Amino acid sequence: MNNSIVRIVDLPDEILVTILKKLHHFDVLYSLVGVNKKLDNVACDVTFTRSIDLTTISLDKADDSRINAILDRFCIEILPRIQKRMECLTIQACFLQRVYHASDYLNLRSITIVNLELKMAPDIFFKKSSFIHGFKDQIKHLSVKISDEIRNELRLKLLTDIYNCIFALVSSLKYLDLGVNDNYFFRRSLLSGLSSTTFSSSSIVHLNIKMNNFDDCRYLLDGRLTQLHTFIANLDYIYDPVLMRVNPSKIRKISSNIKINTSTLLKLKCFSLYVYLPTTEFDNEVVPFLCRMSHLEKLTLSLGVRGRTSFIDGTHLDNCILSRLPHLHAFVFDIITDFVRSTGHFEPSADHIRRTFIQRGHHADCYIDYHHSNMRRCHVYSVPLNMECMRHISHGFPGGTFINVRILSMLDDSHPFEHNFFAQISRSFPLLSRLILRNTTPQTEKRSHQLVKLEEISSVIEYSHLIELDCTHAHIDYVEQFLSNVNTCLPCLCKLHVQYEHLVSVTENFTRNTTLMNCVKVKHITFDDNVATARSKDFYLYFPLL
Questions:
Q1: Four-point Cα dihedral 368, 372, 374, 378, nearest 10
Q2: Most-buried pick from 265, 383, 519, 532 (CB within 10 A)?
Q3: One domain for residues 426 and 478
Q4: pTM of the model
């Protein structure tokens, strides 16, 4: 060991820094600070201290004392030495208060807080918080990822209060990213009925926020954000589809009464709209809304559309939206037109729709599905797709390479997803971290539980980065497909959403060896609502990290 240290110390500082750049900054600091003066100086170089990411310190029930010891040393011995160089901090919410009180951080400008539980938030963001008092005039960039389920009115109100406090109290803020667990929808609009001073700011230029519906989006453009340049809106839906069926005129009237500020729209240069549930209001509401953003330079659209008699193609988008935006130079899209009835007249092919985009300078790919009752579905998207999430691909998906996509949903109740298709998905989305499966059609090409052929061994599919799998609304065959190591290898799976009965059957009541490997690292399981809470001893042996 001493000889190794001598050889490392003999290297010039510049070479040491180049070598150590390949390591995580936290590891460099924790390993080298205190070894000797030279390595101290190298570790405390601005290369390793400007941006600190503490999310690699995971809070594991089995290792509380070890984690606390690591964090104590970092807070007591290391942070005071590097705090003047720190500009960016990424941290687990449960560690924030300890790290905050460890030093002064005079030059800290950017904070990312992940896995924030709502019960922690008041101590961090409400008016009397020491965190707010210390950073309200200093922080320029703030990103908050809330992990809780927002399933009831009490939590929704608390979330609204937290959002509002951040807008109101962090006066220096320019970049704000507010993310929420998107497994669950909000129960209502967040801004309806609230004062126009709510969620207001004269400093924010970049906003990425999860909201409920299109009215929330319109409220935020009514003049309360006077300097907004980039607006990324993640919505549950344009309007609640149930309410639209009951009283569409009332919904549209409420929306029309929200006055969008012209000055705000003129300053807006980048707009992204991500909508989870499909809408029938694309042409009536979304198109006129976008056409008012006359100074827009970049537009991103990700949504599903229903209630049309034809597919959305490049010609329609150009005529109705893009030609009205003279400053636009970037357009990224992922659009599904669903439930379009075959008429027997001219019906465009996927190649035809693809050409309507390419002829206008937009590289795209496209596929068309044919359902029962003469219904068709068209999915068209930018290539390359510069989005983190791609939703609702079906069995007709042609493949490709999507290195930016981390979240994928697969939806098809007319055709099964077979093993070879999942192999294609693994190749197409190499960095996928979350997968949602919705398919109640059983597989027709099932693989045996017992491997007997060499080619079967070589065809086991690996999802190297998959952390979260949701097959709650999938046939039991897909639970088998992913949990059996005959079919799939999931080395990083730690979150599983599944029907309890399916899990019991596939794991043979938590005794089956071929499914154990993909289950042993799981730390969080969500079952359907009706399942009993009692668990057997075998269940906890099968999932030792729960």
A1: -20
A2: 519
A3: yes
A4: 0.90
